[in-house]
Amino acid sequence: MSGIRNWRRQAGSLLAWWAVVTLVLVLLSAALSQPVTLVGCGVSAVLLIAVGEAGNGLRQGLRQRTRRAG
Question: Residue 17's closest CA among 39, 56, 50, 58?
């Protein structure tokens, strides 16, 4: 049961993070008077979060590898 609970917590965290990043991108585009749609900002937010999560995964993997070797 804890695996499902952990998965839901992770999904909820990513969804909240996506909403915040999308809102920031929408507000930034409005402040800069750039014609960007909500869908475009949402897609950009997904890409930014995916790259960030991939980088975090690589960082943690390298950290674990150096701890095992050292």
Answer: 50
